[in-house]
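Let's practice the habit of predicting before peeking. Look at the sequence and jot down your guess about where helices and strands might fall. Then scroll down.
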Amino acid sequence: MDPRIVTRLTRLAAALATATLLLVAACSSSSGTTPPARSSAATTQPSASGTPTGDGFDKTAHSTTKASSIWVVVNKKHTLKPLRYAPKLTVVDGKEVGAVMAPALRKLLAASARHGTPLHVVSGYRSYEYQVEVYNRNVATNGKAHADRYSARPGHSEHQTGLAADLDNISSSCVLEACFGQTPGGKWLAKNAVRFGFIIRYTPANTKVTGYNPEPWHVRYVGIPLAKELKKTHIDTLEEFFGVSGGNYPKK
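Done guessing? Here is the structure:
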């Protein structure tokens, strides 16, 4: 190749390289500072309640005082507010129950039947007015001390929330009796309630905390996440888990 042509091509390549460098510099200066690199580390996301959950359990995801909350704590120390609260209702197994609990309850009943230990609903939702009748009848029949041990005062009953149900075997002589816990259905319920978001609310181990004698037939819906957390932490009362006072009625 002619030496003169080689020289010209060399000069042209050098000029193009210089122009490219000038263009890149101009673009960088007009775009401001280079954005920082995105960290690869995961950040903690806030829960629906605004409290970071991290790897722990968010105890503030639901209210423990709002009557419509699935985590509401109702006991002898804490009444429902408002006192005559009534939830949205539907019917499961011929009984009125809270609409929020209904899908889980249907699944639990179906699973018990598949296992060969079919359960049914003895009692579901009870209105404030109905609880007045139940409690007063118990007082008249057995005395106030007995009634307070076995029957909630009006406004103090979990049944009024629509989140509680009394269950029994399809065929049983232990209806609402302690012996239900020793039946095949009772044993299945104690072992499997958590799978559907339920807990056995009143057990022999937590009588002093709840203020009630054991009721192996009484299930309370709290949702699967909390039910599993209670099982994992070996805490079987809402009072202890959330730090809410329990026990007997306040002395007047």
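How did you do? The first helix runs from residue 3 to 30.
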